[in-house]
Amino acid sequence: MNDPFFNGLLRRRDGVFSTDLLITAIGYLDFFNWLKKNPSTSADICKKLRLAERPVDVMLTFFSSLNLIKKTGIRYHVSKKGDVFLTEGSPFDLRGYFNSLRERPICQDIAGVLRTNTPLNWAHASQGDEWAKAMGKKDFAASFTAAMDSRGAILAPALSEKLNCTHYSKLLDIAGASGIYSSALVRKYPHLQASVLEKSPVDGIVKNLMKKQGLSKKISVISADMFSDPWPGGFDIHLFSHVLHDWDVQDVKLLLQKSFDTLEPHGMLAIHDAHINRQKTGPVEVAEYSVLLMLSTRGKCYSLGEMKQLLQEVGFINVHLKHTAGFRSVMTAQKPIE
Questions:
Q1: Does 91 sit behind a cis peptide bond, omega within 30 degrees of 0 on the bond before it?
Q2: If you average pLDDT over residues 269-298, what whole number do you get?
Q3: Which of 79, 94, 118 corresponds to the end of one domain?
Q4: Sorting pLDDT into bands at 50, 70 and 90, what band is 1?
Q5: Residue 62: which of 326, 288, 308 has the closest Cα?
Q6: Do 66 and 201 fall into the same domain?
Q7: Who's near 296: CB < 8 A, 6+ residues apart?
């Protein structure tokens, strides 16, 4: 499904903080004026402006997707459009217009994330924890899982149309939340058996959902922490759907390594997510979503190049990508036969 109306609604939600990042960069850093005078590498931007690497990477990708900055070689510089509208001396300078909103609390908090790399409370709530900690609380876990399930009603069938499971029999859905993606896949491929690996309290939520849907015989639940607990063997498909974008590079590499170590030889790894392009210039809808993730989790939307490199580093081969729906895509890779 590629419904423009659905895509537009999804973008409104996923990109909710992106304009606030632009206001913050202008109002707190005078970023475009500074960059015009100081074309710089990402590392130099972090060092000279005293900012953290992960949020700067997200910021540069987002501004590149808006065509406000360009990358030549290893250095970023202000684009012609950025120069016209966001630098000193231009008759069309809009910095003052954006600066009029800089005192909004969210902008102040985004400035903090840029400097410290510490995520905000989920959805910038007045009380609560960052997303990773909040998921340990039953009420939050239940409401968040239901929210992701509603999105999956459209995204999961689209995934099942693009992910060919004909020659595989056992699927491990890692941190599979409500199990909606496993559900779509076992319905599409009746020969497929699936297990959702989830920790408490989400594991209990999944068990109840599978029972209500009459899928308990097709989809089991394995109660485990994907980081600290061992993974079961015997599976020839591993699925990460909207999982890796919540974690930093080292955590992502750890999860990919655990997948490689436990997946059956010639098994398939599928990563269903929103991916930045190889040049890290967009798509703008994914770059906007990455801002939300940068603020609320420890991760971001990873680029095709970044993810392919990580997959190859742990041993996967034959990396391919197919677009699904809602600015999402599924990246597949194989574990070679030793």
A1: no
A2: 97
A3: 118
A4: low
A5: 288
A6: no
A7: 119, 120, 121, 122, 123, 124, 130, 131
